[in-house]
Amino acid sequence: MNPKQQLLQQSIAAKEVFLPHISADPVIFGFEHNELKVLLLKTNYRKKWLLPGGYVRKDEDLDEAVKRILKERSGITDVYLEEFGVFGKKNRSEFHFEDFDETLFQKQRFITVGYYALYSPSRFHLIPDEFSETCEWVFLSQLPEIEFGMDHHEIIQKALFTLRQKISTKPIGRNLLPEKFTLPELQKLYEAVLGKELNRGNFYRKIKNLGILRKLEEQRRGGAHKAPDLYSFDEEHYAKAMENGLNSW
């Protein structure tokens, strides 16, 4: 079955199963080689890159829908997602399906809800769905070279902007770094998110004052220089900071 036939078949079933005019698009950020990545699909139809989004069933909550969508489209499960925005420009999705007539379910006007999450790419085995040629982690630095469908590049930029705003009030790192890490590694993560270099002394002082780190009685071995101390996140304090916010940053 070719991609157009696939979409036509999906359209027939979708009208019975899904709510019209509402969808969800999760933006999953990862961190690798000191750079941020984002999870994307390359579709069989039109060969453009999209977020692993989809439609909401008539019998499910929106938050549950986005978890199901992410699992079905990429194989990712057990992810905590946070809503960050709504996108509803006219023709945001209609032009993507311009090869079809107006009866196609996917070509209707859809308002989409954006969610974001941060997780290590090494944690998941990606499994693309039948509508996708591939499912991959793509570095943010590569996004200008990519041909996106719909307004998904705009959604990613809004998610990144939201993440940069919230980094001052919520901790990050637990899902992106190994269990044991150094302060330079944590600083690289913050720099990747913020898109700028940070003063090492100021960063170390501020991050320690947050009370979310636990210094370990061991060092990172194997380098040419003095072995740096290793840290882990204090789970109890980290959870409280996620719930109540940071007061010291």
TrEMBL record:
Instruction: Give one Pfam family.
Output: NUDIX
Quote the Gene3D superfamilies the UniProt record gives. Nucleoside Triphosphate Pyrophosphohydrolase (3.90.79.10), Winged helix-like DNA-binding domain superfamily/Winged helix DNA-binding domain (1.10.10.10)
**Does this entry carry the keyword Hydrolase?**
yes
One GO MF annotation is:
hydrolase activity
Q: Which UniProt keywords apply?
A: Hydrolase
Domain named Nudix hydrolase is located at: 1-164
Q: Which residues cross the membrane?
A: none
What is the protein name for this chain? NUDIX domain-containing protein
